Task: structure prediction
Amino acid sequence: MSIRHSLIVRVLGAALLAAGLGAAGYAATPAHAPSSGLAAKKDAPKKDEPAISAPHAILIDGENGGVLFERDADKLIFPASLAKLMTTEYVFNELKQGRIKLTDEYVVSENAWRKGGAPSHGSTMFAALHSRVPVDALVRGMIIQSANDACIVLAEALAGNEAEFAAKMTQRARAIGLSKSVFTNSNGLPDPGTKVTTRELGMLARHIILDYPEMYKLFGEADYTWNKIRQPNRNPLLGSLAGADGLKTGFTKDAGYGLVGSAVQNGLRLIVVVNGLKTAKERADEAKKLLEWGYRNFEQRILFAEGQTVGSAKVFGGATGYVPLKAGGQVRVMLPKAGGDKLIARIVYTGPVPAPVKAGQQIGAIKVWRNDSLILTMPLQATEDVAKGSLSQRAFDAATESMIGLFRAGAERL
Result:
């Protein structure tokens, strides 16, 4: 019999005290602990929240994905050119898997030229009709110049046409954990079917940064020249904010002005998304303001050192009743410098875990909440082997689990 165990991380209090948070910084896990990373909705902004006007915004810890600030981050919105980040991820993955190479050359079709090239009067790399352009150039045009023609050329080469490519984009989005976003073309040109959420744009940016570190460097290049036409990078954060190194801007009449950006200061990476703004200047100012607010008001704290025991999981039929658990590295979170926030931590796993257990075996995760926001989910693993127990030990565990099951079934009927 298997039941869902959710255990308090009892040693976390000591870790928080060591981090300088004080006893008030830790709270035991209540029965109604939050089950998602969604922040509670507020009628008015808190006193310590950033003074920004963006209708849709999120600020994310680049290391673990924890949310430092969010506003209407789960509403489906039009992405405009921010959709090119999904095309970028798809192409990066194809390169990583070895299915295409940077030296491969693709032909600029009349469709790509008319819809995304010079005749379109939109953002373009000015690729010549019927010319052959290497993947390396198309990727740079897409990232640095926000080139619509580059996106269409890649889509047609990889899937035959844009509609098929868009279906593959959406399928790929689901594979990397984006459950809501839908794509109907490769470049984000206006289409009522293309929708994303602010949160998932942040998740996508973090995925690109972590999974393709070498290719990500392209986002920080200052300019790119193709067909003898030099164009600067459209990201206004580059050069205006210390440590800024990516990612993308977007604009259509329906979407407004949006930006997905990232920066690293003192070894800490933050990711910002703002959307629905009225001007390009407002977009740049709001994104910069939110990043600066994050660096000014938050700092990284170590809750558990690398290799430190975080807690334990109950074992079924083992030589011992519990197995110690640890994370794969340091357990770190971004917390307000001013303190005062309530932290809740839980080890969540499906158990009891059947013996034998091998050292290194993944068993559940540690989840940490700051107030109502889930700020960290980190996998845990067994620190040691647990062999199968004797016949009497296994019989005792079976009887215990049966009694627990009967008790739970009776309680559910009350």
